[in-house]
């Protein structure tokens, strides 16, 4: 399973690229959040979309090495549930 | 998307910085007068809104240091809004300092910085207000007899001042994709809400499509926030104001304050229909009476209208050549069109005009800092801030004015001790004034300091070999020596004005914008520097004349009279030098032919312009023929060709020829001076 390393800024300008990268994932979504400094609303939504896709396809969704900043960004936007479901430290 | 997106983001970022400039200007304006009206709650509200707007925008662009400082400033201002603190001279000083810090942080981010370290002293000064005790209102004892005013007795009423009560709100919000397009993010709103109290955020993800169906820039989420806060509801609403119509939020007070309010207008977000909440008192959005336009577009418009004016001249030139009379049908149409173009040109030039306030307000800070560095007390008085000046002039006015203001405080205004000994108020007065006179803008910098010392200036000029010892100069000429390169009467280089920029640079900067500076000074009483500026550099009203077969233009503002030149009345005062009787006196004569290097033949010269300069000095300027009186589009000589003595700029005529525009001050300065002494001797 390949690991998609997330960039520092998951902001609006990265949304299109991020969507493409997620669409290119074969089945499972394995993301590395160690470098992430900020998550914006659109990328947050794409993470949720990937999470829901994985749920529907009975595939795996996980975010490894979530940085503190990423954790904080997700928490602020109401993504706590999503961390506990898809995170692997 | 990336290149276009980056361009868009840069444009939005620029808009944010422009808005910051506006908010900071308003902040300065309100703070400067806050001390005079400490009880004016609306002023504090305006100040709060300025800081809040800057914070909102800064959050959208991730400028965290700016958000952090403006948040602190805003929190302090809120204490003043709520009456927990009262405005006094110290708090106004602190606010002004904070405004300067905000200005610096904005400037740093504008210049590409990613962070800014705020001086901890300023932060600490602000924080003191956060922890200060509420002012205690001591009611008089009830048995104290109250003043009887006009027969009415007043008894004290005890006012209970409670701690702000915590309220619970439910906020349901969706966002439109436009929020992201203009550089904002829902994350910023959620952070701002969290900063107001305890919040619990849940997100409804049911509408989010799977990854292959999702449109990355569409918005599918709905947030529900439960917020417990002691902040007034207005503060909560203000968070959404900056986002305008891009956020649809329903705020409901819980549990017993069942007020519901819709902020902003509904936006087309694909969310499930929810029961319509009760809508009460929707927030009205302010209609803006202005449109923000890129200045380059206006500059382009000015240029195009300039070309239109030249083209209009070409039509008139062809009419003359083809002997089409002005009162013919075509002539009337062309005249009507000329009038319309004239009006169009004036309107567009006005669009490029800015109130001089934008420069004056920046000087407020210069005054504060210079006063602090020199340990002097200075009161700044601004007058005529709404006087409008072309933007191109305004941009170049800031630096020379800054230097002159620094000089006025550093070298002009005395320290408190000396002022007391001289019987003056310990606080020096610096007055900046702008007004219109004779089609020009006058800016005055007036101080009530020591005034210029002509003897000292003269000695220094001799010492610096600017003039020769014994040279006869009148008072004005001595004052103008301070503008000579290398002149400085101050032995000690100070932090304030000894920065390597002399008054000669100030004069040069002003000359670049066709500005002239005059000095009025009285020893012991103060000095006034008066700067005269054109309203615009784009157009000039002038008289076109012929000399030696060529066309030239003289600015109409400098022509006080036009008379028929009678060669017989001219009298010889030296080799090729003439005087001419005028009213009860005599004028020095300069022939237009002379400035072209020719010798006047005494026959072709038929018209005399009585030309005057800013100092009301006059001369007779003799030309061959007057062609027309019109408005001319100014073209910079140095940019298009090179600098030519005697001519300030040039214009393109209707026939396509170039006509040089006379530099009247040069005529007075360089040519006339040589004549004056000869004329005096002769008369």
TrEMBL record, chain A:
Residues 5-78 form the MlaB-like STAS domain. Pfam families: STAS_2. InterPro entries: MlaB-like_STAS (IPR058548), STAS_dom_sf (IPR036513). This is STAS domain-containing protein. The lineage of its organism: Bacteria, Pseudomonadati, Pseudomonadota, Alphaproteobacteria, Acetobacterales.
UniProtKB/TrEMBL annotation, chain B:
Its EC number is 2.7.13.3. CDD domains: HATPase_CheA-like, HPT. Residues 5-109 form the HPt domain. The keyword Transferase applies. It catalyses: ATP + protein L-histidine = ADP + protein N-phospho-L-histidine. Keywords: ATP-binding, Chemotaxis, Kinase, Nucleotide-binding, Phosphoprotein, Transferase, Two-component regulatory system. SUPFAM superfamilies: ATPase domain of HSP90 chaperone/DNA topoisomerase II/histidine kinase, CheW-like, Histidine-containing phosphotransfer domain, HPT domain, Homodimeric domain of signal transducing histidine kinase. SMART domains: CheW, H-kinase_dim, HATPase_c, HPT. The modification Phosphohistidine is found at residue 52. Residues 338-537 form the Histidine kinase domain. It is an enzyme of class 2 (transferase). Residues 539-673 form the CheW-like domain. Involved in the transmission of sensory signals from the chemoreceptors to the flagellar motors. CheA is autophosphorylated; it can transfer its phosphate group to either CheB or CheY. This is Chemotaxis protein CheA. The lineage of its organism: Bacteria, Pseudomonadati, Pseudomonadota, Alphaproteobacteria, Acetobacterales.
């Amino acid at each position: 399973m390949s690991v998609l390393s997330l960039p520092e800024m998951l902001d609006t300008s990265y949304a299109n690229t991020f969507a493409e990268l997620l669409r290119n994932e074969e089945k499972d979504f394995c993301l590395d959040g160690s470098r992430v400094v900020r998550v914006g609303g659109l990328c947050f939504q794409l993470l949720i979309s990937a999470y829901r896709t994985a749920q529907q396809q009975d595939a795996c969704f996980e975010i490894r090495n979530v940085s503190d900043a990423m954790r904080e960004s997700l928490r602020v936007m109401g993504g706590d549930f999503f961390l506990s479901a898809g995170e692997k430290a | 998307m990336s290149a276009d997106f980056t361009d868009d983001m840069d444009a939005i970022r620029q808009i944010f910085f422009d808005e910051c400039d506006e908010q900071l200007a308003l902040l300065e304006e309100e703070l400067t007068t806050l001390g005079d009206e400490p009880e004016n709650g609306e002023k504090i509200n305006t100040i709060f809104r300025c800081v809040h707007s800057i914070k909102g925008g800064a959050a959208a662009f991730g400028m965290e240091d700016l958000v952090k400082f403006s948040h602190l400033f805003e929190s302090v201002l809120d204490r003043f809004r709520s009456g927990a603190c009262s405005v006094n001279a110290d708090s106004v000083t602190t606010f002004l300092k904070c405004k300067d810090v905000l200005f610096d942080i904005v400037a740093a981010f504008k210049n590409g910085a990613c962070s800014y370290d705020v001086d901890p002293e300023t932060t600490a000064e602000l924080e003191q207000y956060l922890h200060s005790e509420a002012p205690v209102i001591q009611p008089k004892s009830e048995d104290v007899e109250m003043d009887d005013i006009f027969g009415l007795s007043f008894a004290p009423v005890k006012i209970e001042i409670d701690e702000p009560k915590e309220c619970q709100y439910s906020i349901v919000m969706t966002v439109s994709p436009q929020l992201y397009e203009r550089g904002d993010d829902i994350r910023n709103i959620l952070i701002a809400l969290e900063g107001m109290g305890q919040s619990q955020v849940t997100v409804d993800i049911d509408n989010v499509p799977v990854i292959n169906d999702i449109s990355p820039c569409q918005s599918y989420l709905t947030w529900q926030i439960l917020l417990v806060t002691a902040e007034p509801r207005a503060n909560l609403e203000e968070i959404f104001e900056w986002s305008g119509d891009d956020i649809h939020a329903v705020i409901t007070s819980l549990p017993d304050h069942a007020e519901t309010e819709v902020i902003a207008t509904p936006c087309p977000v694909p969310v499930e229909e929810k029961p319509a909440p009760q809508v009460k008192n929707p927030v009205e959005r302010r209609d803006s009476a202005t449109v923000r336009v890129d200045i380059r577009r206006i500059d382009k418009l000015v240029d195009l209208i300039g070309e239109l004016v030249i083209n209009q001249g070409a039509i008139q030139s062809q009419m003359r050549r083809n002997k089409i009379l002005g009162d013919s049908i075509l002539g009337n149409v062309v005249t009507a069109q000329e009038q319309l173009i004239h009006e169009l040109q004036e309107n567009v030039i006005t669009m490029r005009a800015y109130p001089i306030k934008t420069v004056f307000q920046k000087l407020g800070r210069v005054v504060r800092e210079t006063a602090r560095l020199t340990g002097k007390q200075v009161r700044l008085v601004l007058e005529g801030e709404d006087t409008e000046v072309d933007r191109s002039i305004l941009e170049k006015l800031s630096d020379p004015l800054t230097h002159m203001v620094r000089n006025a405080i550093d070298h002009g205004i005395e320290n408190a001790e000396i002022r007391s000994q001289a019987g003056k108020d310990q606080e020096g007065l610096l007055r900046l004034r702008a007004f219109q006179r004779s089609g020009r803008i006058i800016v005055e910098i007036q101080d009530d300091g020591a005034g210029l010392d002509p003897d000292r200036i003269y000695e220094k000029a001799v010492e610096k070999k600017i003039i020769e010892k014994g040279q006869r100069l009148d008072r004005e000429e001595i004052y103008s020596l301070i503008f000579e390169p290398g002149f400085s009467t101050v032995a000690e280089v100070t932090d304030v004005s000894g920065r390597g920029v002399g008054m000669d640079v100030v004069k040069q900067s002003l000359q670049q914008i066709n500005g002239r500076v005059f000095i009025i000074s009285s020893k012991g009483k103060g000095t006034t520097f008066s700067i005269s500026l054109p309203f615009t550099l784009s157009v000039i009203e002038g008289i076109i004349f012929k000399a030696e077969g060529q066309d030239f233009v003289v600015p109409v503002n400098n022509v006080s009279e036009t008379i028929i030149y009678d060669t017989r009345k001219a009298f010889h005062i030296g080799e090729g030098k003439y005087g001419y009787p005028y009213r009860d006196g005599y004028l020095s004569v300069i022939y237009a032919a002379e400035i072209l290097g020719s010798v006047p033949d005494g026959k072709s010269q038929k018209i005399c312009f009585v030309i005057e300069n800013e100092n009301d000095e006059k001369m007779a300027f003799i030309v061959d023929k007057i062609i027309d009186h019109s408005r001319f589009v100014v073209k910079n000589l140095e940019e298009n060709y090179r600098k030519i003595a005697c001519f300030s700029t040039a214009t393109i005529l209707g026939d396509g020829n170039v006509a040089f525009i006379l530099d009247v001050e040069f005529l007075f300065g360089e040519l006339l001076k040589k004549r004056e002494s000869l004329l005096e001797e002769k008369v």
